[in-house]
Each structure stands twice: as structure tokens, then as C-alpha cells.
Recover the amino acids of this structure.
């Protein structure tokens, strides 16, 4: 069985600025490292565009609306003390939601033995406080399926 790498170029457009720790160059470095022939066996899958319904599994409608309302049409804006959003943040977030859902679905249906998602959402503390998975890895081991994704709780096999 295969291991999937789920990512999308939309995730590279969540621009937090060059002085922010979650800057674009981090994902570029990950993607460059994974381009090495040592990772040739990874099955690369484009992240699907997530749904509002998937986000609503973890957040109420008012919170979802506030996040998307904060995203500017140009430039960057602080959503909170350490979370910067830019025009590309909405698409990056939706690809992240899609990737998380895809990863869990691939394991549950037996299409993949393991998955990892290379994506960029909001900052680490915002991801933890809001329950949004920034980077997830899902694997199937003997026994339960383990998913480090807040959007889709682990499911037993």
C-alpha cells in the first residue's frame, strides 16, 4: 500500500511576510526536500478544495464567518496577535481543509497506508487554539487509524 503526499500550490499564497516564522519559504523548503529522489515513492495528490461543512465539524458559523471576513483583498492583516492573513489565505485554508479530509478518507477507504499534508494555514498558536490542523499525518497501524487532524476525529478500523 502507498503513502500519499497531499499538497497544493494555493498553500504557497498564504503570505505572512518575510519576517513571520510561518512564511512562504518554509513550505517551499519542504516541497524542495520532498522532490529528492529519496521520496520518489510518495504518491503525490493535489489537495482538494475543502468545504464549509468540513470546517463546521470543528467551528461554529460565526467563527468561520469572522475568519473569512478578516481576509483582505490586498496586502496583509493581523487576524490576532500572531496570525497574519493575506488575499491567498482563504484558498490556502480551504486546501488545508480539503487535504485533511482527503488524508483521513484515503486511510479509511484503504487507498493509502499513510498520508502527510504539506500545507500552510494560520500560525501555530492560532491553529492550536482554534483546533485547525496545520500539518497532519495520518497512518494506519494494526488497530485504530490514527489521525492528527482536528477536522476529522480518529476512526477505529
Amino acid at each position: 500500500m502507498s503513502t500519499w503526499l497531499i499538497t497544493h500550490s494555493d498553500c504557497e499564497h498564504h503570505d505572512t511576510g518575510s519576517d513571520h516564522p510561518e512564511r512562504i519559504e518554509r513550505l517551499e523548503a519542504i516541497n524542495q526536500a520532498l522532490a529528492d529522489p529519496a521520496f520518489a515513492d510518495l504518491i503525490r495528490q493535489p489537495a482538494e478544495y475543502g468545504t464549509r461543512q468540513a470546517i463546521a465539524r470543528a467551528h461554529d458559523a460565526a467563527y468561520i464567518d469572522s475568519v473569512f471576513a478578516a481576509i483582505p483583498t490586498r496586502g496583509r492583516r493581523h487576524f490576532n496577535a500572531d496570525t497574519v492573513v493575506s488575499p491567498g489565505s482563504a484558498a490556502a485554508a480551504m486546501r488545508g481543509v480539503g487535504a485533511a479530509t482527503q488524508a483521513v478518507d484515503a486511510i479509511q477507504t484503504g487507498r493509502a497506508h499513510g498520508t502527510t499534508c504539506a500545507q500552510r494555514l494560520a500560525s501555530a498558536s492560532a491553529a492550536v487554539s482554534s483546533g485547525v490542523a496545520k500539518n497532519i499525518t495520518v497512518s494506519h497501524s494494526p488497530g485504530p487509524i490514527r489521525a492528527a487532524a482536528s477536522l476529522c476525529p480518529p476512526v477505529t478500523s
User: Anything to note?
Assistant: Residues 3-147 form a domain with the Arginase; Chain A fold (CATH 3.40.800.20).
